[in-house]
Amino acid sequence: MGAAASAAASHNESPRSATPGQPAASAAGALPLAVPAFSVWGANTNVGKTLVSVGLAHAAAALEVPLAYVKPVQTGFPSDSDARLVALACGGVAEPGQHAAVAAQEAAQPLGSSSGSGSSSSSGAGGYAAPRCSTLFAWRHAVSPHLAVHLEGRAVDDEDLVVATGRHMAAAAEQLQQQAAAAAVAAGGSSSGSGGSSSGASRALLLMETAGGVTSPAPSGRLTCDVLRPLRLPAVLVGDPRLGGIAATLSAYDSLVARGWDVEAVVLVGQAQSYAAGGPQVALDNADFIRAHLAGPAASLHRLGAPPPEVVAVPACGPAPEGHDVRRDGLDPALAAWLAAARPDFVRLLEALQRRHAARLARLAAAAAQAEAQLWWPFTQHAGLTPGGAATLIDSRCGDTWMTVAAPAAAPAAAAASATTAPTTALTPLYDGSCSWWTQAATTELQPELARAVGAAAGRYLHVLFPEVAHEPALAAAGALLGPGGPGAGWAQRVFYSDDGSTAIEVALKMAFRKFLADRGELLGLHGDDSSHHLGATTTTTTTTTSSSSSSSSSSSSSSSSSSTPGIGGGGELLVLGLQGAYHGDTLGAQDCVAPSVFNGRLQAPWYRGRGLFLEPPYVGLSQGRWQLQEPPAWLLRHHPGPLPSWGSLDELMGSSGSSSSSGSSSSGSSSSGSSSSGSSQLHAAYTSYIESAIDEFEAGLKAAAEAAAATATANGTAATAAAAAPAPATAAPGRLAACIMEPLLQGAGGMLLIEPGFQRALAQVARSRRLPLILDEVFTGLLRAGHTSAAAALGITPDIACYGKLLTGGAAPLAVTLASREVFQAFAGPSKLFALLHGHSYTAYPIGAAAAAAAVRLLTDPATNPNLCAPGRAGCGGKSPACIVPCGRLLPLFDEKGLVGRLSHHPLVSRVVALGTVLAVEVRQQPVADPPASASSSSTPAPGSPAAAAAAAAAAPGTMPVPRYGSVSSAAVVRRLRADHGIYARPLGSVVYLMLPPTAPRERADWLAGCLAAALDACLAEARAGAGAGGGGGGGAEEGVVV
Hints:
- By secondary structure, the protein is α/β, with parallel strands linked by helices.
- Among the domains are: about 30-110 and about 130-185 and about 200-315 and about 330-380, 3-Layer(aba) Sandwich (Rossmann fold), CATH 3.40.50; about 455-525 and about 570-650 and about 680-700 and about 735-860, Aspartate Aminotransferase, domain 2.
- The chain is about 35% helix and about 15% strand.
- Strand 12 and strand 13 (about 400-405) form a beta hairpin.
- It is elongated.
- It comes from Chlamydomonas schloesseri.
- Keywords: Aminotransferase, Pyridoxal phosphate, Transferase.
- One of its GO terms (molecular function) is dethiobiotin synthase activity.
- One of its GO terms (cellular component) is mitochondrion.
């Protein structure tokens, strides 16, 4: 012990050897599930928590059940050592960790005896090993851990505590599995493998005892139940038997449940007495009351079908004799007598815990098959799934990491498939690399706060309807969105709540079309009761234009079949001005306002009609260390004189308006987006010329189509008139562009495509000059996902309408909002309710979602809760010009474009990189750049990562590509490497692999993700090179042609 203590004292112990930035749960590793493992909690201090650990350990030793015990945090050490007491009771060995050994050395006190006669079996006939009882972190002062740190120093941060405890538990579980297997063989049985649930490992026991009460401070000062939450072991709660103990116990129970802990047993040590005034002594019924309360018909609904906790009462333990020193004398007589008397109770408790563990394993084992039989997953081809291996079973989430139920990645496939060998299943951490479809905002530290906001709203309201109703969560969320620091600050006046991003877009379209009509006076004289005058009165089918000024890849016809019924005010069908590669949701209206794609094809949306003009935007990406236009559209090469610019940094690309506030004018369009003001003005002129000419030709085509349709209708009508003396039909009105809609900066579902910012500025300027209401779809990009509270602010654009979702609630609940200007709101004023916005759903602005939004927006936009938010005086903000004097709504750079990200842009398998805000994406080449395919891409090739490019890859006939020098590589292969080698769960978008992190995550997390992605690409490259001469080795193919 002295040598260990000396070694530990020589430096500040760092038990965590994980890569910097790696989440604690990920660094802690997997915990084998074969061994029953439980955490022991107290409803308060001095309720007998250690006595319960001692009693369980004593019972396990009596039954020769393999046992390990760990105490992560101990104060009053070494005179007070719970691990030593447990070791004495079970014949085990007390082992201090390095940090705890330092406390013992500083106290100049011996640790004392670590085993004694209290156990009935310290070494059984079957080779029963002495249990290991460990103390990891300890301080001398017998006070709360946070105070002990204040008094003594030797602080331990939360991540180090979790990693050290998790790794210790995993190692102990592995040892217990081996002991159980050896004991089974020695007993004449057969082991079913190293960790199958049918082996003797299910009889083992692993205990982790916490310090103090459930909500007592950890060494960092955060609550223990929050700090240890990444481990989430099933809990044994030691209740309070005293007067007032029912309230303390149930409060502790609720505190654990609210944070996602499963409480499997409640144990009360002793039965206190109460006295009625002037009456007889009355025994308290704490255990009976708690048992009845937790077993009530509705009390276990939160357990999702699992039985209520066991509630066990054990006798009280008498005090130790005066002068007894456990370090010198071992177990005191009172404790030894109590262990003997309480052994039957603890044996029953131990057996109950083992049964519950077996039931838990059975539920988990059946879950995957149940999911495959009952669930219909989105974006999934069920016919291609491997039975029994399709589902990733998630046991829990903590911050940005899942705990999944899985076999270790290194387990051989043959062993996993063997009928005689059961693979070890484990709780395996997986980093959520897609932020669960781009929704997650909270770290481990902030998740409890979001959960508390949701729980408080559920308890207070559950749900209330919303028309002409106000409630505090809806008002708080609206205030956060519209007020200072919110995405609507300075331009939006109203918040309309809906359920998801696609519905928010539907609402935005209705708003924009109404404003378009109101601006032109086309609502005057209407009373809102003529059903023949509606926005869809014509059936014009419109996609994109064909002209000498537009790219050949954006060609289509505007064939019309116009109705004889005019639209409102005599106009034709209202159409949108949008972009190719866009995605605005899966509802019918949202699908119609984008160009054809895999999302709205005939198989998905037979009703689809592209209702608008969809321009071909220029995309940029980081290639060879510079931001460059990716396969520039043919129209840009025609409209732009001379060579196209490139940019040395993202800030240079974004231009000077990248730091503008959201109140900036959308008509500016003159901010520098090139390497010089001259280059910027040339690009802006090219963009404007293309947009204007495309619109003009599109509208001319609409007019010509309407006239042709009217001529046909007139000819048909003339014949009908001669036969029936009916009047000829009116001339059909041409369709017209009535709104501009775009995703600012980044097209997510299109393939993480970064649109050159100057193009969107020019488009917004043209839309404003033509009085087209501007809709910005910020469902994905908004609220810091793309690095700014509002991507519109990053562009210097002021919209009329903007939509937010995903990060809006931090991932806690489904909710979306459509923000609108005062002018948009006023367009719905009218003489009757029929002029109002007749849209809504049963759960509009439901309090749970609104409370989550209010909390999430605050934590994202407040520098006190978001360490990455640019704020005056914060490290990293000084490089901005001009420097911020107030929070600017911008994230500090998370990904180092001059470091890891820049090196990724030179990787042989990477054609482009996008690193924006919290998003890192790479497009994967099927062939390394050193050996490109024979058919080089031309300027008419679909944009990289776009649905058109994916469809072209899928449609390519086999055998058309030359035999490559290297084996081909797919994005799916990179994703598999990320999961198998680095514990990162990602989903590809066609040929694109993307990763992201919560906006509040440590900045080191971005470096860790970039490093893991680089390592996965390196591994795929090495595999491809090794596959040379073997026909290419596989991975590329049809899987690249679908959005996964």
